[in-house]
Each structure stands twice: as C-alpha cells, then as structure tokens.
Amino acid sequence: MQSSTSRFFAVLAFAFAMAGSAFAHDFTIYRGLGGNVNKTPCVTGPKTSPSEFRIDPDGLSTFQSNVALDTSKPYRVGFLVTGAPNDPPVQGDTGSVANVNGYTYTATYSPQLGGAGHWSLKNTTRTDQEMKNDFSAYAKLVGNTDRNPSYNNNPPYCPGAPMRTRFAKH
C-alpha cells in the first residue's frame, strides 16, 4: 500500500506534467527558397545552398503563415517550433527548433521585424556562416522542403519538378 506522501508526490508530478503541456505550444514556420531554373525557363527544384539563408542580426527570418512568404520563392523549408508559451504567440515568445544539423536553435516571435507571423531563428554559439551551413544541411537532409503555395508561378514549375523534395535521410 502506498503511503499518502508518495501518492501526494505522484499526483503533484502528474499535475506539473499536465500544466507544462497545457502551456507549451508548437508552431510550424517556413523559410522561402529559390528555385533552380533551366534554359526553358522553368523551375526544376529547390535551391538549398547556404546562400539561400541570409542571417540578419536577429537570425534567420521565417514565417508562420504562407501568406507572409515571398511569392517569388517557389519552394519553402519548414521548421517545428516547440515549447512556445502562448497561442497565438506574442512578441518576444520563444521556443526551440531541434536538430538543425545537430544543433538546437531558439525561435523568437518577432512581428516587429517582419509583420504578423514573423519568427527569428538563431543559435548564439554558431557564426553566421555556420548557421547558413546548418540551415542548408537541414533543408537537404531532413527533406522538409516542398512547393510554396504562395508562389507566383513566374517562371512556372517544369514538368516533373518535385512537389515535395525528399533528399537522403541521415
């Protein structure tokens, strides 16, 4: 028979676990990617080189909504933000994006920098070039790259251009 003390701690642990999950929210955010264009011209697939990931002082700009994505970018890469305190998020809220080339990035909700739905991704232990390389490797290896539904179709996708890119998994 359990003592009342051990039952109390079991109930208390359960309550904390439930409270933690009730206050943590997850969001999918996106970064637009350019497309490789052939001579036709049409888009053959996404560009995933480090140059596609400009790092500003606040980090990499990403957006929670497709509406805010650059309509000239035919592809996008998605990141999962976990542990944000509010839904909808408020300016300054933070969460984590895990396993970006083996590193965890802090996601900060920053609508003052890019409008509603803007998140900044940064890892303060990484240089700007290392962050670009991390995001490039993530887009290539994780395979979380697909067509941008907000793309203006100029130039159009080539016949056979991937809907969702599946690169080699690690």
In short:
By secondary structure, the chain is an alpha+beta fold. It has three helices and ten strands, in the order αβββββββαβαββ.
DSSP strand tally: 10
Instruction: Tell me the span between the first and last alpha carbons.
Output: 48 Å
What is the approximate shape? globular
The average pLDDT is: 86
Question: Would you tell me the structural class of the helices and strands?
Answer: alpha+beta
How would you explain this protein's 3D organization?
The longest helix has 20 residues, at 4-23. By secondary structure, this protein is α+β, with helices and mostly antiparallel strands. The strands form 3 sheets. It has a 4-stranded antiparallel sheet. A 4-stranded antiparallel sheet has the order 4-8-7-6. The protein starts with a helix and ends in a 5-residue tail after the last strand. It is globular, with a radius of gyration of 20 Å. Residues 8-21 have low confidence and may be disordered. The protein has helices at 4-23, 111-114, 128-141; strands spanning 25-33, 35-37, 43-46, 60-63, 75-84, 94-100, 103-109, 118-122, 145-147, 164-165.
